[in-house]
Amino acid sequence: MNIPHSPIAAVGSITLLISLVVAAYSAATGMIGNAQRRRKLVTSSVHALYGFTALTVLASALMIYAFVTHDYTIKYVAATSDTSMPIWYKITAYWGALEGSLMFWVSVLALFSAVAVKFNAERHRDMIGYVVATVMCIQVFFLAILIFNKNPFATFLTEPPVDGKGLNPLLQTYWMVIHPPALYTGFVAATIPFAFGIAALASGRLDDRWLASVRSWALICFFFLSFGLILGGRWAYEELGWGGYWAWDPVENAGLIPWFTMTAFLHSVLIQEQRGMMKVWNLVLVILTFWLTIFGTFMTRSGVVQSVHAFGEDNELALLFILFMAAIFVVSFGLLLFRLPKLRSSNTFESFISREFAFLLNNWVLLGCAIFVLFVTMFPTISEAIDGQRITIGPEFFNKWMTPLGLILLFLAGAAPLLAWRRTTQERLWSQFAFPTALMVGVLGLLAVLVPRTRVMTPMFTDGIQLPVSLINFGLVAFTMGSIIQEFWRGTAVRMKQSGSDPFTAMMGLVVSKRRKYGGYVIHVGVAVMFIGFAGQAYETMEDKTITPSAAEFQVRDYKFTYQGFDVLQQDGYTEYRATVSLASPTGDALGTLRPSKRVYEKSDQPTTEVDLVWSLENDVYIILTNFEKEGPEIRSVNFRVYINPLISWVWIGFGILFIGTIICLLPKGLVQSSGKPAA
Questions:
Q1: Where are the chain's structural domains?
Q2: How far is CA 615 from CA 173, 623, 639, 650, in A?
């Protein structure tokens, strides 16, 4: 470890060392105390965890202070910031590269574990020591890397630079202020259900009580993974300049894969609560989700995949992560096998036409999605390891296979709430499915008449089999929306009859009293709305246009563009080359002014593309400045690429609805219904 040349680096390095000692002590006392039922040792481990949390918060505060005060004696600060950067980019540079992102992970996990232990220490006295030990063993691993391999407080042994190199220009956008921490937070939140699952296995307390402590954390994990993924999509849409928001980038896939397994857990846990089934499966999903977050971290930070997000190749770090993942796998599944005789389900599946079977099918499809995305993402690395040739798989292959799986999940989101537990009678099938099915058929019929025929037929599985996938998508959206509207209407009608309240009050009372059920339905609505945006890709238009002084107008589809001029702007830290284009609708109405540009940063030779767009519920008009030619002070020509992206705004709207649904699910139990009775 380098000898620090600054007070901040010295205190920070010492803080990390003390944190490692405290983490090791907390892990040991928690494990021994729980195994030997020595309450004082367990209490000591809990207090050590609280002290550890304070230390990691201090270390993070010191790092942020180093960025804000331009302490370039610290290598990490010099590598990822400079004096010209705005204050918020200096703060977010903390997690902008490898060392800081790992320390951010440690700090957030410390805060989460402190909260989880605080609210569960008394309720789970017979297993809380194992919870603490599990979390702190994980912290020991990350701290050991930070101290001995990737110390964020390492300093220059020679004269430090006068100014830093600056943050990667692609990261200097407001979306990156919140995208990485959101995704990291989702990864970290998966640790808490894992810790409680391991504690349940270690203690032998294998009833359903541990599930009650992890439901909220599973939802928090689901939400932040969703939030991080959607922000990453928005960043790609606005910053990378290729007209889309999701290209199956390996590092974004690293966040999507555990999202699949955590979503599966949130559904399968209902089967255990309602029917006493799938106990082993739920533990497998908790273990697998956590393992996949570590694998995702390994992919991002070891350089085993090639990505615009990756931090570069590091073979030593890759080996450490491989050993850690192997240890997690052996210990977790070893405990699971040891306790297998005690994990027998109290019931069995009675019918294929039941809610629990629909949830099981949902789990199979979600797990299939996770396995497929994981394998295809890693295939270039696997192929290179086998024969030395890196075979790259493009987005088209992902889309070809993920589209049918996504449509199955969309159908199940609408069908599962209509089915009864155990078995569904013929009468219930008819009464429950009649309205959603009629709505689906009506929408399909209407769209089949109205939708343009071009690009409707999409390859499915092979180029020889084509289906109107976008129309099927819209039909299933209608089916799912109809199912959920029906569930809300029937529940509201019953509550109105019981309480005599108006429809709005009855519905609000219904949502609060059964927040997990109806919050989940709202999440399903959000997902269905996002699928509207996904379907719009079938009708995307892209054209390249060149503007010269004699030809200042052009048209894409029915939109009219008029070139207004070109500016060269000197900004803090970069030069911006910006074109101005006015946009008019097919009827000639002004829709706004577009200002696409290119930026060249002083600390980087890499130009960045700054797109501009005008959005509506129907279309996004998206323009990119691809090139320009100058002759002296005069602009000879300007090249644009224009995309007309139908329905893409529904992706962002759908996430907003998903956010509301998640908040409803997380409402505290203390809320009371309008009737004055405690919420169920």
A1: 1-167, 400-538+651-665, 546-647
A2: 19, 11, 22, 11
